[in-house]
Amino acid sequence: MWWLVACRPVVPDPPVVVPVATGETAALPPTPTGHTGATVAHTGRPPPPDLATALAARCPDPTPWEPLFPGLDLHRVTLPQGPACNDGSAPTVYVRAATDPAHAADWVLMAQGGSHCADHEDCAARWCGEGTYDAAHMSTAWDRATRAGTGIQARTPANPFAGWNQAFLRYCSSDQWVGRADAVFEEEPAYAIPFRGHDILLADLDALLGGVRSDDGDEALPPLSAASTVVWSGTSSGAWGMAQHAALARERLPDARVLVVLDAIGSPAPEVLDAAQADAIAQDVRQRWDDVAVWDPWVDERCLGDHAADPWRCSDTEVLLRAYVADDLVLHADLRDPVALSHTAWLGDTDAYAAAMEGTLRLHAALRPSASYHGSACADHGVLDANRLFRTLTVVDGVASGAALSLQDEVLTGLAGGRSLAIDIPSGTGSACPMAAR
User: Fold this and answer.
1) Prior bond of 30 cis (ω within 30°)
2) CB 150 within 8 A of CB 69
3) Rounded (5°) CA angle 388-390-395
4) Exposed e or buried b for every residue in 269-299, given b needs 16+ CB within 10 A?
């Protein structure tokens, strides 16, 4: 579900949007399948400026607080042409070539998360850093030549993936990696904004498939097309994007073993809710699908084929994770995730949400006997990209007690062809929760 991978709700009233005009008159775009959001022609006026220009009076210096974790582990690759970030800047990927000869053909691809926006005010506030996020998730203009690798991408002896080829996919489109549209928000000050997350992800993948060299020339990676093993992963909004594109990744990497690792994603299953709660979730998913019509969101094509009459169902994580992400999967969710909790007032208190999520993970485990599930109760949002959490946040399964497992343990088990379950109970007695050290 969209709202469980975002830190702030989308403003409920959808904006009036038009395509970015390239002349005095722009034709109406086709309404995305399943959407009914209003569009208007932008005629008789010059096209509006980009968001940075339009919002200069509101925030003349949108410099991010901390664009990326500083460090020397991963080196920037700037995509030369193609889809643009929200401010028109070029997308980037941060890479490190394999250092362990035994893993020269093994890769970790991780998509960055970071909420989203879908209307004039929410995107303006995001750009100006007036909430949880800032311009670092809308632009690559401030990207350093290098950054630190964290969690599964950390360059440390404690990380078994340190010697693999690594690619960190920068998130700069504010659309959970599924947008395909260039839009204009007509409210004053009007501005143009691309939502091109889907296109950026494909451009990233195309570049990596052919082999890349970092901008500074220090890192040269072999073609991803020759990969033997690929961990296709993401956290929060990044997990949502990678889940929607998991089948596509397997199509583009037919000779590789692709393990999908999703972190901080999930929503309560209707089977663990009462009828009113299940109906509330369905209505919420549909409304939010309409709210993000401005993105022209791309969803898994098989799901869209199965739900052509109701494409909004493909934006529900329950639908997606049950049927359209293969069983070669490791999923982590926290039963007390504060981001998810901030959107579940209708469900009740923290304990009620935790119980619903425990039941959901166990239901999924029963339905998908090859997939692995890691359900902690540490009130964390995101483990895969956090150094200590990835390695040392452990869970003992609350039903079938066994060894305490970290998310790292579950990923390694999945790569070895096994399956592991470590799902806590709502009280959290099975979780060991270290402080995050990124």
Assistant:
1) no
2) yes
3) 105
4) bbebbeeebbeebbebbbebbebbbbbbbbb
Say what the pLDDT of residue 145 is.
Answer: 96
Residue in the structure block whose two tokens are 């260039």: 182
pTM, two decimals, is 0.89
How far is Cα 368 from Cα 91, in angstroms, rounded to an integer?
36
Q: Is the pLDDT of residue 28 over 70?
A: no
Rounded Cα distance, 391 and 406, in Å:
6
Average pLDDT, the chain: 88
Taken in order 333, 306, 287, 172, the sign of the CA dihedral is positive
| 67 vs 137: CA distance, rounded Å | 8
Per-residue pLDDT reduced to its tens digit, 143-163: 999 999 999 999 999 999 999
Structure token pair of residue 76 = 């920037």
Q: Kindly give the residue spans of alpha helices, DSSP state H, lying in 180-309.
A: 197-210, 237-244, 246-252, 275-291, 301-306
Q: Which residue is listed with tokens 């879908």?
A: 118
Cβ proximity of 133 and 126 under 8 Å: yes
**DSSP β-ladder status, 191-195 and 181-185:** antiparallel
Closest CA to 187 of 27, 282, 51: 51
Mean pLDDT of 283-306: 94
Give the model's pLDDT for residue 26: 30
pLDDT of residue 47: 85
* Whether 259 contacts 415, CB under 8 Å: yes
Residue 215 has pLDDT above 90, yes or no: yes
Edge-to-edge strand list for the sheet holding 181-185: 17-19, 181-185, 191-195
pLDDT digits (tens, 9 = 90+) for 45-65: 788 999 999 999 999 999 998
CA distance 414 to 131: 37
Lowest-confidence pick of 41-45, 140-144, 385-389, 421-425: 41-45
Distance CA 351, CA 73 (A): 40
Distance CA 344, CA 341 (A): 5
Nearest Cα neighbor of 295 from 1, 76, 2, 48 is 2
* Region for residue 186 given its phi and psi (left: phi exceeds 0; alpha: psi -120 to 50; beta: otherwise): alpha
| Whether the Cβ atoms of residue 413 and residue 372 lie closer than 8 Å to each other | yes
